[in-house]
Amino acid sequence: MRSFTDRVSEIDISGIRKMFEAAGTDSINLGLGEPDFPTPAHICDAAVDAIRRGFTRYTPGAGIPELKSALSEKFLRDNNISVTPDEIIVTSGASEALHIAMQALVEPGDDVLIPDPGFVSYSALSRIAGGRVIGVPLVDLLLDPDVVAEHITPNTKVLFVNSPSNPCGSVQSKKEIQAFAELAEDYDFTIISDEVYEFLIYEGEHISPAQFTDNVITVNAASKTYSMTGWRLGYLAARHEYIEQFFKVHQYVQACASSVAQAAALAAVTGSQDCVRDMREKFRKRRDILLKGLREMGVECPTPNGAFYLFPRVGDGDRVASELAERGVITVPGSAFGSYSREHIRISYAASEADIMRALDIMGDVLL
Ligand SMILES: Cc1ncc(COP(=O)(O)O)c(C=O)c1O
After folding, report:
1. Distance (Å, whole) CA 178 – CA 261
2. In ligand 1, which atom is closest to the CA atom of 307?
3. Torsion from C-alpha of 358, 226, 177, 138, nearest 10 degrees
4. pTM reported for the whole predicted model
């Protein structure tokens, strides 16, 4: 028998993947965590142009200077934070950014606080880094600063903040974000702020913890904002002492992000943002259709102010997700996201209105 490290072999494959594997080919897929829109044409054109002019080699490790400058301007414009181009690493999706930060920050004996329910990667990446995962139960689907404070230990190294959140779609207030930043300073830990759904906010505003503390890694990506999940283009920003260490991991696991994807991301960040607004309005409409339909069935579902997920309480989430899958609607059971959300399912509305209407009919049979 071959032996593998405990930190890898003890990790289960994502509960989201399991649902897809169980699904029939003609199922309606409300399990997806990616926008269903094509990447906007001007972004694709920039990539094609990059290929044609031979921009197909390694780039500088931390990213092409033009993109890092554009991102530095973006941080000031959209997030009100001052980040120099040297404080940015362009990565292969937000996933790589999360991984390199965890590898450089966490070692055995360190505690990592993650929202529970929370995005599946936080727990897996913490364990791969050797850390101990401490789930912080959400209050009304939000991370509450007092509850976070109760879970801090002398070994707390990292707190994940994800607003708007996957799987809940909830958006943290400025007051809460400020309180997380104060905790990070008082107890000397680092916040990893995952902001990939930054532009998918329907009510409320997006606030970056980096406005209030330097103890923070700001992680973002082109993936959700510009419907570019397959391009694998993300980035992180942090103060120099972090970047120095993160860059070593990035250099050895990735060398650099894709040259073509960087050219595309440059067009995305510097071009018209109308495409972002258009996609957001379509998502908002779908969210409202789904919410109305679920509430008419008497399902308890808070209005999510961001991302493209609904996280209703449905009783036994595993049973409901399986029954829906058997009838051809894929959702994800709340148990995939932590131990405090077994009564929920995650419904993604990154699907056409027609599919959402058909799914609602089927949900009526299972949920009523
Ligand atoms: C909260 C969150 N962070 C990060 C990611 C990964 O993003 P990327 O595709 O850029 O690696 C996802 C993808 O679903 C996500 O939902």
Report:
1. 34
2. 16
3. 30
4. 0.96
Q: What is the pLDDT of residues 15-64, one digit of tens each?
A: 666 666 666 778 999 999 999 999 999 999 999 999 999 999 999 999 99
| Tens-place pLDDT, residues 219-264 | 999 999 999 999 999 999 999 999 999 999 999 999 999 999 999 9
Please name each of the domains of the chain with its CATH number: 6-39+274-367 (3.90.1150.10), 41-270 (3.40.640.10)
Closest CA to 171 of 146, 203, 139, 147: 203
- Ligand 1 centroid vs 221 CA: distance in angstroms? 8
Q: How far is the CA of 17 from the centre of ligand 1 (A)?
A: 14
Ligand 1 site-directed mutation target among 194, 195, 196, most atoms within 8 Å of CB? 196
What SS3 state is found at 332? Answer: strand
Q: Which residues line ligand 1 (CB under 6 A)?
A: 33, 93-95, 119, 162, 166, 194, 196, 221, 223, 229, 234
